[in-house]
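Hi F.,

I've been meaning to write this up properly since the lab meeting, where we talked about keeping a consistent format for the predictions we share between groups. The idea is simple: the sequence comes first, exactly as it goes in, then the structure tokens exactly as they come out, then a line or two of notes. No screenshots and no reformatting. I'm using this chain as the first example so we have something concrete to point to.
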Amino acid sequence: MYDILIKNGLVFNGLPEDPFQAPIAIQKGKIVKIGGEIREKEAKIVINAEGKYITPGFIDINNSADHYLGLISAPEAPNLIKQGITTIVTGNCGASLAPLVNGSLKFLYPWTRSKDINVNWNYLNEFLCLLEKRGMGVNLATLVGWNTIRTNIAGEEFKPLNKEELEKCLFLLKESLEQGAWGVSFGLGYPSEQAVGFKEIIEASKIIKKYQGLMSFHLRNERDNFLTAVEELIEISQKTNANIQISHFRVCDKSRWNDFKIALDKIENSNQQKKTNINFDIVPYESSVESLYSVIPQWLAAEGKKAMEKNLKDKKIRQNFVKILKQNRQFYKDIIVADANNNLRIKNQSLNSLAKNFGLSLEETIVKLLETEKEQILVYNKNISESNIISALQSQISMVSSNSTSINLDNPNNVAFFHQSSYGAFPKFFSYFVKSKQICSWKEAVYKTTYLPATKLGLQNKGLIKKNYDADIVVINPLTIQDETTEKNPFVFPRGIDNVIINGIVVLNKGKLSYKKAGRILRKK
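Output, unedited:
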């Protein structure tokens, strides 16, 4: 007996090839037969996919369920499964939940409140074993964050690493790769990694290349120096021949939106000349959720939170800070406070309304937030061009990501991250950009969300509907697929994702969740 039979659907196998009609048989977590005659009585479960599309499970190459601690609070990942996501890649933007030499999660302050979490692991293998014991709703692969390693060894001090510190960081990186990490990530756009120089990246790349891993980068600047930041990565790729991924590729300054296509051309031309190996992922929304620390001048917080608090108490530095803020109002004038230590008085409030309530200018309101909400401040900012999103998604080197977290459905408002992408990123891509805007074909769209991220990361037996591959499969209704979220109500499930199978287990049947923890921890061998 087969465990599952999927019949009558149109199969998009994950490659940019024309779809075909064929039954699919699943047994013991694997795809064991495609095509031929398979009778219903030969299977325990039969899924009739007539009029629907059958695709590999979506691979979210830039997921933040570790940053927002969704791996701990919502390991079932129901909001991700409802999107058709079967595998997530965490450890992006320089931060991962291991290794933790000193057992501290303080480096997560740009994203979440971490002081209430009991850390009972130090090294990556210990953390992955803990996740395996708890169970996961989706498959998980992780990078190791360079900032996590760096702050464990050298603290938050804004300075280049000395020889001994660098050697210790490289040792932890190598150890994490041997314990199953798929590569390393850098969050160059965050104040804590502004001191990361070319030498550190080059030395890390030597180890990554030896282990055939991925190097992921949050750009050093997504605003006024966006082009320079892109050119930095092109130079790194040219000098190291590294396998590079740019996380949530975007320019967040309206006055610099035109720079995006220039940067995209630079990357594509360099790739075509085989000088570089660079891909990127796109979150398909015009708004972003980011740390307030990404909006303020980076020198203020460059040496860590304690240094920033000291700076704000200095009258001259404070006046200079406010002056610089006024000159850059376009970066923050329309922001909404997504979360600040779960302070309900300011949560979901616009900066303008807070300024009126406080009787302060926009700039003094930012100072007040930095002084009073020291642990974490997330802001919601509509600062990304749809035209640039379209250009990016049309590129052959682009992928789709949610850059979101798993959410506990019993208490969704308790999570700091409330962006629409938590519920609708992949359906938004298919329903709006593929179905309505027709920026690419369905076969190309499926490739961007399945086999391309699998090959970029180096995942084995994932991303294709192929015999002996893992049975991670999604059944989509192409007529009804729709992202139902809005900016005011992001907690709405999409329509059109009818069935999701993970490792041969049905976790979503006719739109209904089973809450089975069918995911696996994927270690790079």
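Notes:
The two ends are 32 Å apart (CA to CA).
The CA atoms of residues 30 and 470 lie 5 Å apart.

If this format works for you, I'll send the rest the same way.

G.
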